[in-house]
Amino acid sequence: MPRFDNQTVLVTGGTGGQGASHARAFHAEGANVVIGDIDAERGAALADELGTRARFVRLDVTDQGSWASAVLAAESAFGAVNVLVNNAGVQNPPAPIEHTDQATWSRILDINLTGIFLGIKVAVPALRRAAGGAIVNIASTMGLGGTAHYAPYVASKWAVRGLTQTAALELGRDHIRVNTIHPGVIATPFIQEPAAGATAAIADFYSPEPFAIPRLGEPTDVSRLLLFLTSSEASFITGSEYVIDGGLLLGPALQSETV
């Protein structure tokens, strides 16, 4: 039997490279999938592709009212919300801190951090009504160390870690588990196209060749981990952080021919 039969999953940023992969993966495992995003055209197309067990809802993660409407739509369509995937996120154009304007700082934190805070705040009552469930917040390996020229993004992802652990402590007795995934460099438009205001994409100056697994990650790599963390197989896991980066944070791997 599919792992998510009769369960409903809300995925934010659901039309992006990782988000669409997550939506398809949950759907393939039997879930009802609610695709939350600001891109109505792509969201509606993905929902049509998936069929009757999928819905698109326009969701601005920085707006509490938009969150309330999305959760209501999910419950109205499918009767419950069992899983929340806080996947929506944006990258800042690279710049040193002294040249990063406050509007950029505020926008990145509004989407990447406040968006997750509001998601948890609004979705928790629905998860309680469903007798529990799981929340996974998608962070980044940049939330595990400093990265020059990406201060807003780094700060937002570090903060997601503390928010996740706090939520895990608060919600465990309600049978709601909260965990974090830290992807490395994943082959999506997020890293293959320049961020707004940038002239180069991350992929233009990053090569996976020196690392233990010398390839870019694929969205499906992250989706498979996500399915595990939100399933009953992970029922004793909460407040935990999962790095999926092919060894990026380990540093360059010494190759046998150089030994």
Automatic annotation (TrEMBL):
Q: Which UniProt keywords apply?
A: Oxidoreductase
Keyword check for Oxidoreductase, yes or no: yes
- Region annotated Disordered sits at 1-21
Q: At the top level of its lineage, which domain of life is listed?
A: Bacteria
What stretches pass through the bilayer? none
Which Gene3D superfamilies does the protein's record reference? NAD(P)-binding Rossmann-like Domain
Q: Does the keyword Glycoprotein apply?
A: no
Q: Which PANTHER family match?
A: DEHYDROGENASES, SHORT CHAIN, ESTRADIOL 17-BETA-DEHYDROGENASE 8-RELATED
Which NCBIfam families does the annotation name? Answer: PRK07231.1 (NF005559)
Q: Write the protein's name.
A: 3-alpha-hydroxysteroid dehydrogenase
Organism expressing this protein natively: Nocardiopsis sinuspersici
